[in-house]
Amino acid sequence: MTSTTRKNDVTELDAVVVGAGFSGLYMLHQLRQVGFSTIVYEAAADVGGVWYWNRYPGARCDSESIYYNYTFSEDLYNEWTWTSRFPGQPEILRYLNFVADKFELRKDIEFRTRIHSAQYDEAANKWIIHTNDNQVISAKYFITGVGCISTANIPNFKGLENYDGEWYHTGHWPHEKVNFHGKRVGVIGTGSSGVQTIPEIAKEAAHLTVFQRTPQYSVPAKNHPYKAETVQQAKENFHEIKRKIRSSMGGLPIQPGELSALEDTPEARHKKYEDAWEKGGAYLLFSYNDLLADEEANETVSQFIREKIQETVKDSEIARKLTPSYYYGAKRAILDTDYFETYNRKNVSLVDVKQAPIEEITKTGIRTTNEAYDLDAIVFATGYDGMTGSLFNMDIRGKDGISLKDKWENGSDVHTYLGISTAGFPNMFMITGPESPSVLGNVPVAVEQHVEWIADCMEYLRKHDIETIEANSEDEIAWSKHCRKLADKTLYTKVESWYNGANIADKARGFQIYVGGYGPYRDICDEVAKKEYAGFSLASSSKSLEWS
Ligand code: NA7
Asked: Measuring from each residue's beta carbon to the nearest atom of ligand 1, which residues come in under 6 Å?
């Protein structure tokens, strides 16, 4: 157990970490290794982060199992054996429990404890942290591992409180099995969660009505059980895999093709797309080097998927409603198992709520501007308040009592330095914060890079008797500008998505992700560390040092 001290009912620590998902678990392990007293505070009853909460039928990761894990420990990699190409939620949760057990992490995690405020006390150079159960903690470092998509978005539909049926959000699914047998079920939302759960619910429900606002491009995952030799081979190639995914663009050992989609003949291009489609997974988007940058190139792959939808869905009117027109991949690319096929079932219907919006949740179901639908259960697959939502859920205040929410103008003016820290909030680090590459790839790889960088930084500060580290305002403005400049060269900013806050009514729009790739971003962070934390102000108790 971490050696904590208590003074006047205040727990004193070196570091407080928020969240016991991939980020918090590894952060705790790393800080323990180098001797910082650390406690993780977690609102859930156990480890897992989003994988603790996302228990909906069909919940599965879109990254391949053998890459969707930690690579900091070869022993861990060898001891765990994934069973299928894309891991389901129960298996990922078992993995994270295995990690917690192996490294005895639970003894330094306080479960069922939500941090509701963290305020920097400048005179003491400490973060004063309050929890929902009235604990007060004083820590030198405040580290958030809250994930980028963990605060559920339940749209403010009129009348939900009057609804007599059951309702669920995919991101807060009950632990016990929800029984849809013989029931009329409505699913609102066709993002990743909707696309994964719709085929599963359709198998059980008497009737399923899908309420779709924006149609999705989705590619078959082609999930299958792993052969023993595939996993064995991965274990034997651990170092190679680790090296490749850490230096790759998206945390997977796949790099975008070398050609532009427009350099190939239509026949060659079609063959390439067909091959990628057959392989399943992320290959399609990686077929060429400009599918996310060039409108014309993107149209070739978008059209390819549109044709697949029309071939799969038998009813041409339903196929038309399911066919998207925006740029494939600019909204989060999705993998599925039998999503479009599900619309051929007799017990499934599709309602276009862009054309006829939901007006009200009534006592008996959902009423759109066109029609009323009686439902025994409603599933909100309506996503998350992404990127900033979970940070804003805590009242985080830096120097002079300025809140993070105010500094970032409620999300409309986010500035960070490297997505790890923000000026005015000394000794605070964000794991996969806004303006880091975070969600644009295989997230555990991004998590490990941030955790290792932060732990190294803290060791450096301790070794050099440095008391505070704080991002310089001008450097974070330059970083934000750099992020936006890169993003503006892509199609991400030309489509409405949760990446830019457009999924939530009244949320400020802004694309807050570094699109330059995991590997290049790692090099930038390493260079900053090598230059003794260039872009940060470092202060010992007696003197202040500045590099920029
Ligand atoms: P997403 O991808 O944000 O999807 C949410 C879905 O809910 C999407 O289809 C939304 O339509 C729809 N939505 C949201 N609000 C409404 C309202 N008010 N009315 C109708 N439909 C609505 O969340 P997921 O949980 O599926 O996936 C999140 C991420 O988790 C995913 O990208 C992976 O990274 C893992 P919209 O498209 O905004 O028009």
From this structure: 149, 155, 170, 188-194, 213-214, 332, 353, 358, 381-384, 498, 503
